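I'd like us to work through together how a protein chain folds, taking it slowly. We need material for that, and I hope you will provide a protein of your own picking. Go ahead whenever you are ready, and we will take it from there:
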Amino acid sequence: FFVFGSQNNYTIFSPFYAFFIKLFGLNFASIFLLLIAQSAFFTSVFLLIKKFTNFNFAVFGIIVLSIANPFYGGYGIFSYGEPFLTARSFAEPSSLFALYFGLDNKWFLAFGLGFLAGLIHPLVALPAVFILWFLFSKQYKSGYIALVLGIIFIVIGAYLGIHPFNKLFLTYDNAWWHLF
């Protein structure tokens, strides 16, 4: 599965997790961090839903989120709010909190949380940061220029094979998919 390398090169989560494992041991660290991550996830979803509707509907949304099937995508390989600890466990709520604060025009906090989410799991953070950039650009036109320049930079970096963008156009052939 990790024939092209692991995601460990793109996250600050591993040393963070290792610190807690050394401090508390594997079992307690895993349970403790998962509880924090899940609490942050549900809190961020609740606040974001509440931003668009009332308290009762937000509570209903959390109940639905709790019982809904979290798996999506081809072969069901993607999910949200997973019941086990990964870097995504912290990147998801960080991204959602970033969107919440962006909707309140608290840009420093929003982009800070988006940046943190990107350090934890860049692929999870990317959609939230693009949405933040779009919202910011609606208020400040210079944001459009920065967004376009950022996208051009990423695409050129991928085309030239510059790390970490060199994996952007990586695809897996059918033989690889049939291994699973």
About this structure: The chain has a mean pLDDT of 88. The CA atoms of residues 71 and 77 lie 7 Å apart. The helical segments are 13-24, 26-52, 55-67, 88-103, 107-120, 122-139, 142-160, 174-177. The chain is about 70% helix and 0% strand.
